[in-house]
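Lab meeting, item 3. Inverse folding demo.
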């Protein structure tokens, strides 16, 4: 039954008074196993991966083996962040000066920054109601300079990979999957990260499993893996493969420490249970809200493509989204408008200041200055479909800790706010 009591923002009693669950997942599951592994590293006094002795007992190597088994790829490379994984992936597939890389207009700023850092030009493409890359706009943005596309599985939602891979194959594009926000997700039964040429993961605190910072790159190509290995270790490789099959080139230091790796080890074993509970919470919630006619849910929400890490729904317009988020928060369910034009959320392209200004670290305009005759430009009007969707989208964080009582509170709060405001 919908409450007809006044909204909490208008002085009425809130639906919920106890605190909401933590927004974190993997870090909430840290316990005795992780503590024991970290202490074991300290006891060994071997905190750098590439000491010549004991390479076979490296924690980072063991983590790579775990990821290879979990994702089902032939090769994996542990790095120190998800951003580093993206940069290594771009280098691996041959992206560099003079190239363009298509990215969604809704992703963390690091996706765009990684492209610019390797000397390529980021090209923004629209997202659709799933909040992932729109395959039609992807194809519309391809030029003779396009080398690759970074597909971001945003907010735990897998992108439309069949359509995207078909476009990429048609135009001979390299496909990099950014799985930072969807670790453990699947698409048509296949693990995310295994569908493109390279998959990239993050182990940052807010991700599905976490080490504070850290990342992983996976691929089925030995050549791409060797290129990534070379780049992540300052052009070094002697501890990773005896037979180098690629020319040498300079790199960076993106190595993962043994302590970070130890913290992550074993979390992949826990992840299926975390994901199962989170998916089920989202499925139940979407099922209950399908009949709420005053909100709109994407058809992919609550399906196999949805990891379930957040509830996102659309309302009629930007102003109603702002008021709905405020009202839900007052009812005891923390919510936010996905694009609030007064905020500086770095997930939304209009807030990527360096990109909007085409500015490099030296006050010039590299790599854009290399692209003579390029029509790539950026403004708030670059991806209007994306902004229109995000401005009327409201988000609530979910995870494996959400209980049946919590689900009832969300449903009651949404119905109450819809009754009064929508």
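The presenter then showed the designed sequence:
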């Amino acid at each position: 039954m919908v409450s007809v009591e006044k909204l909490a923002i208008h002085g009425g009693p809130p639906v919920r008074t106890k605190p909401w669950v933590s927004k974190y997942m993997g870090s909430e599951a840290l316990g005795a196993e992780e503590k024991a592994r970290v202490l074991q590293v300290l006891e060994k006094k071997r905190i750098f991966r590439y000491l010549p002795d004991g390479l076979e007992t490296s924690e980072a190597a063991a983590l790579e083996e775990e990821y290879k088994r979990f994702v089902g790829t032939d090769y994996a490379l542990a790095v120190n962040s998800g951003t580093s994984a993206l940069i290594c992936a771009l280098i691996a597939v041959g992206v560099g000066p003079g190239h363009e890389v298509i990215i969604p207009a809704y992703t963390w700023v690091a996706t765009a920054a990684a492209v610019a850092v390797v000397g390529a030009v980021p090209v923004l493409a629209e997202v659709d109601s799933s909040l992932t890359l729109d395959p039609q706009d992807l194809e519309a943005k391809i030029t003779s300079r396009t080398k690759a596309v970074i597909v971001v599985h945003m907010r735990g939602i897998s992108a439309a990979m069949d359509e995207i891979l078909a476009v990429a194959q048609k135009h001979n594009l390299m496909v990099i999957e950014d799985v930072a926000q969807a670790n453990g997700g699947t698409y048509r039964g296949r693990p995310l990260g295994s569908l493109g040429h390279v998959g990239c993961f993050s182990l940052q605190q807010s991700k599905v499993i976490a080490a504070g910072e850290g990342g992983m790159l996976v691929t089925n190509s030995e050549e791409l893996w060797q290129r990534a290995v070379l780049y992540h270790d300052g052009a070094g490789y002697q501890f990773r493969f005896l037979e180098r099959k690629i020319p040498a080139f300079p790199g960076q230091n993106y190595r993962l420490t043994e302590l970070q790796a130890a913290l992550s080890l074993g979390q992949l074993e826990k992840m299926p249970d975390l994901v199962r509970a989170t998916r089920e919470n989202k499925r139940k919630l979407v099922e209950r809200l399908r009949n709420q006619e005053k909100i709109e849910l994407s058809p992919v929400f609550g399906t196999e493509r949805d990891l379930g890490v957040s509830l996102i729904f659309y309302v009629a317009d930007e102003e109603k989204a702002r008021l709905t988020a405020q009202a839900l928060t007052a009812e005891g369910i923390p919510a936010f408008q996905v694009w609030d034009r007064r905020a500086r959320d770095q997930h939304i392209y209009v807030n990527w200041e360096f990109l909007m200004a085409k500015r490099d670290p030296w006050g010039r305009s590299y790599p854009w200055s290399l692209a003579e005759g390029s029509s790539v430009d950026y403004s708030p009007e670059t991806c209007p479909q994306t902004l229109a969707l995000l401005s009327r989208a409201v988000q609530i964080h979910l995870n494996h800790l959400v209980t049946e009582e919590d689900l009832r509170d969300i449903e009651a709060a949404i119905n109450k706010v819809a009754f009064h405001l929508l």
